[in-house]
Specification:
The complex is a heterodimer of chains A (495) and B (101). Chain A has 16 helices and 15 strands. Chain A has 495 residues and is of the alpha/beta class. In chain A, helix 4 packs parallel to helix 5 (126-139). Chain A is globular and about 70 Å long. Chain B has one domain: Alpha-Beta Plaits (2-Layer Sandwich), CATH 3.30.70. Chain B contains two helices and four strands; from the N terminus they run E-E-E-H-E-H. In chain B, a hairpin with a 6-residue loop joins strand 2 and strand 3. In chain B, 36% of the residues are buried. The model of chain B is unreliable at 94-101 (pLDDT under 50). The chains are: A alpha/beta (495), B alpha+beta (101). At the A-B interface, loops of A face helix 1 and helix 2 of B.
């Protein structure tokens, strides 16, 4: 069953992404950070959950070469998950990358961050990477620069990173134990040789930890990405979280493994599964005691453009850019105005939150999950059928907290639970099965009925309201109606 | 005496900056080794640099056409297993990728 409104959704998702890609912290978590750090991340969509509703980022694919092999990556295929040089994606020279960055920043004044995240490892392509940074810091000084790396070449690059004024670095650290590492990394290229197995993992881990210490010693902000691989490093990642925090990383982003046979990766081909949404959240919650956790990562491609969760790369291909007439100075001025406006709004919201009365905790009410359709600005402002992803929040008497983004058009796992016959609406309902309410600006008649049948209440009454306030209002209404009393929940909903 | 890059190359650039003789050039449909320049790294390195970083099994061959990184040597995926799994994925109706041989 295809619905017209749902059929308008773009067929192919730009999500997924090289797991080494740079990607964020909740507003409340940021409020515990020192002012100096908060000032650095308040307009960085990948480092601040608040900022990601407003500010856009882009990656330029200037770094094709890689110096290690990960079992979740395959350079051979250009799949939805990966950006690799070759047939489809555009590998850019530093010149082209500078041109593209300035064109995007002129067209999208919310753009605050330029990252280099691949498609290989940026630091395995030092000339291309640093040439791009050097030119951008001169020609678009208001754009923040950041880089994402596997860490192998990090210690030798720290000096150069500091020289280019790069104050955000993401390191993908999947383990501290070389025995575990050997099950994730089959080989590395190190000192002119290919090194395999446990020895390779030992060297990589040593380099990552050394690089992390060197960066934090210089006051460069470090986020650590980890790929959660059930049965391999899932238990181990709690220790990783503690250790990287102790060494000064300020944010930990635990991401789910993406592995499908058609990606041609080792994990995909050998049937290694990714974690369920609940397994991922349990691990994030377990790590959260020690560390700021990022929960809004979209695992984006190494050539993504726009707000997190959207990819406008198609609008900015090299031939389209060539036809644009751009006033760069005016564009920088507009960016400064837009940025000042957003920052004022974010500060006002933060002040509101701080002034809000302390919640009254009630043991007699259960928490619920609410899915929200939003196209940005932190508002309930998207039509149900236009949403390619939903933001899942947990509402309880303690307040409202963000849990995770849920991609709906990516939800097809390609196996027999998810064949061609299943419509996008079915997949959306399956993806939101743990939610009791969906907040959106509008919703069609048919999806309304289908959601209700599935035990999920559609709600369009909070259109254009601020997300957390809308979730709190819905929770209060439900609490007042008595349906949240413990022991009266719809426990058999999933059956 | 020279190595050769064959069609399974994915143009990932990893080898190009490592060649001590600048024998590797960007080309279409795939990167190429200029045979007259290639020394197989003898005198410069213990191991051939291009073959030591290449992530694609079989993409670089010696003068006899023998792959420097034979099937199964890098990914740990035995080729027979890769093929049978890809076939299984195809039969299951998932989207398919061409097996590379």
């Amino acid at each position: 069953m295809e619905l017209p409104v749902i059929g308008q959704m773009p067929a192919e998702s730009a999500g997924g992404g090289c797991s080494a890609s740079s990607c964020g912290s909740s507003g409340e978590q940021l409020s515990h950070l020192p002012d100096a750090i908060r000032a650095k991340v308040q307009d960085h969509p990948c480092y601040s959950e608040d900022a990601h509703h407003y500010f856009a980022r882009m990656h330029v694919a200037v770094a094709p070469a890689c110096n290690i092999q990960c079992h979740y990556c395959n350079r051979k295929y250009d799949c939805s998950n990966e950006s690799r040089p070759g047939v489809v994606s555009e590998l850019l020279t530093p010149d082209q990358a500078v041109l593209k960055t300035k064109a995007v920043a002129a067209a999208i004044p919310q753009m605050s961050v330029l990252g280099i995240a691949g498609p290989g490892d940026p630091l395995a392509n030092p000339q291309r990477t640093f040439e791009t940074f050097r030119r951008l810091s001169a020609e678009a000084p208001d754009i923040k620069l950041c880089v994402s790396t596997n860490g192998l070449a990090l210690p030798e690059s720290v000096e150069e990173l500091a020289r280019h004024n790069i104050d955000h670095v993401t390191i993908t650290i999947n383990c501290l134990d070389p025995e575990i590492g050997a099950r994730i990394y089959p080989w590395i290229f190190w000192q002119n040789k290919r090194v395999f197995g446990v020895e390779a993992a030992r060297i990589l881990i040593e380099q990552q930890q050394k690089g992390l210490e060197m960066l934090t010693a210089r006051g460069i902000l470090v986020k650590v990405n980890s790929v959660m691989i059930p049965g391999i490093n899932d238990q181990h990642l709690k220790e990783v979280s503690q250790v990287v925090k102790a060494k000064g990383a300020f944010l930990h982003n635990v991401m789910p493994l993406i592995a499908e046979a058609e990606h041609g990766t080792f994990y995909g081909l050998t049937g290694q599964r990714g974690p369920t949404a609940d397994e991922l959240q349990d691990l994030q919650d377990a790590c959260a005691g020690d560390m700021n956790m990022m929960r809004h990562c979209r695992q984006c491609r190494a050539d993504a453009v726009g707000l997190l969760g959207e990819d406008r790369g198609e609008e900015f291909t090299l031939d389209k850019i060539a036809e644009m007439d751009i006033d760069y100075d005016k564009a920088m001025q507009v960016r400064a105005e837009v940025r000042a406006g957003i920052t004022a709004e974010l500060n006002a919201r933060r002040a509101e939150r701080q002034q809000a009365a302390a919640p009254v905790l009630r043991n007699d009410l259960r928490p619920i999950r609410i899915a929200v359709a939003s196209s940005g600005q932190g508002l309930v402002n998207q039509h149900f059928g236009h949403a390619r992803e939903f933001l899942v929040y947990e509402a309880s008497s303690a307040g409202v907290r963000f849990l995770a983004p849920r991609k709906t058009d990516l939800y097809c796992a390609g196996d027999d639970t998810c064949g061609d016959a299943e419509s996008v609406l079915d997949r959306t309902i399956a993806a939101l099965s743990d939610c009791e309410v969906v907040l959106c600006s509008k919703i069609g008649f048919e999806p309304w009925g289908r959601l209700e049948e599935a035990g999920i209440t559609p709600n369009g009454e909070h259109a254009m309201e601020e997300i957390e306030a809308a979730c709190a209002a819905v929770y209060d209404e439900l609490a007042a109606s008595g349906v949240l009393a413990i022991a009266s929940g719809k426990n058999d909903r999933a059956a | 005496m020279a190595f050769e890059i064959v069609e399974s190359c994915v143009n990932c650039w990893a080898c190009e900056p490592l060649c001590p003789n600048q024998a590797i050039v960007e080309a279409r449909p795939h990167f190429r080794i200029i045979a007259e320049r290639c020394t197989e790294c003898i005198g410069d390195h213990d191991d051939a640099q291009c073959a030591s970083i290449c992530p694609i099994e079989g993409a670089i061959v010696d003068e006899y056409g023998e792959p420097l990184n034979p099937p199964g040597s890098l990914t740990g995926i035995p080729m027979a297993m890769a093929l049978s799994l890809l076939e299984k994925a195809r039969l299951a109706g998932g989207s398919t990728a061409e097996p590379s041989t």
